[in-house]
Amino acid sequence: MYCKLYFHSSSVESAILIFESQYGIARKELNNYYFKQFDIHICKNKETDTNKLCTYPDGFLYYEIIADVCIYDNYIQITDTILRLLWQNNMPTVVSCDYEKELNDYIFKL
Question: DSSP letter at 62?
C-alpha cells in the first residue's frame, strides 16, 4: 500500500537513522531505502518554504522532507509506527494516503 509523508526535519539522514533503529539497516539505492516491511523513497522537498510551513491548513506541503512509502503488509500498523517514531523524535509529520480514514480510526482507538 502506498502513502506519502511530509515531515519537518533538518535532514534526510536523521530520518533514515530513526527508521533503521526500528526496522534494521536498509538496503540503499540512490534515494530509495529498502526495509523488510516497506520501501521508502525519501528526498528534500524542492518547494520548502519556511514562511509557508506554519500556515493552516496546507503548511505541511512546505515541510523540508517528502517520502513516498510502499508498505507490503499490515500497512495501517506500519504507517502508525512510522508516524509515532517521527513524532517521538520531534519531527512533525503528515501522511497522505488512500487509507487515511482507517488510519485515523486505528490511531484514535489506541
Answer: G
Grid cell locating 13: 539522514
What single-letter DSSP state applies at residue 32? E
CA distances in angstroms from 22 to 49, 58, 78, listed in the order given: 30, 29, 11
Task: For residue 88, report the phi and psi dihedrals to the nearest 5 degrees.
Answer: -65, -20
- Pairwise CA distance, residues 52 & 49, whole Å: 5
Running DSSP on this structure, what letter comes out for residue 12? H
CA distance linking residue 60 with residue 66, whole number of Å: 10
User: What's this model's pTM, rounded to 2 decimal places?
Assistant: 0.90
The pLDDT of residue 110 is 65
Distance CA 28, CA 15 (A): 14
pLDDT per 10-residue tile (average), the chain, 110 residues:
92 93 95 96 94 92 96 94 94 95 88
For the chain, the first-to-last Cα distance in angstroms comes to: 22
